[in-house]
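Lab notebook, bench 4. The sequencing result for the construct came back, and we need a structural model before the next group meeting so we can plan mutations. Quick request posted to the team channel:

Model the 3D structure of this chain.
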Amino acid sequence: MPARSRSPTTEATLTKRTRRPGTPCRTPAGPKTTRRSERGARSYTRGLAAEWLARQWLRLKGYRIVAVRERTPVGEIDLVARRGDQIAIVEVKARPALGASGAMPGPRQQARLAHAAAAFLGRHPHLAGLSVRFDVVTIVPWRRPRHLRDAWRP
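Done. Here's the predicted structure in token form:
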């Protein structure tokens, strides 16, 4: 019995493009990523690494980490640390260079953090009797973390 050969229409169908020209190619891993989403993913990963480094730095300085990335209805608190009878609400800032602007949270972010701290302390009444302060830890590549204690008062 002779071998069956493919028909010309089947051969053309197999080599034919299955998508229109100009449409993005989809990979099995998911939709094509854009530069903006890649940049956002890099920033998110950099932020997680900065928070980890800030946690380690505060532990070395004698703080006990009470909460990490605490979500409240008002917003998110990066770190909550305790040392003695003080609670530090810590905002972690990762910057590409030492002189980069924005090391301190702006007035709107300060107000948001103050409201988030009040919500956090409302959910944790055993910490409500302690004095609260707001700190900033700045992370810059190839430098020690910089811890600004009592960076602002609400």
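Strands lie at 64-71, 76-83, 86-94, 131-139, 146-152.
Will bring this to the meeting.
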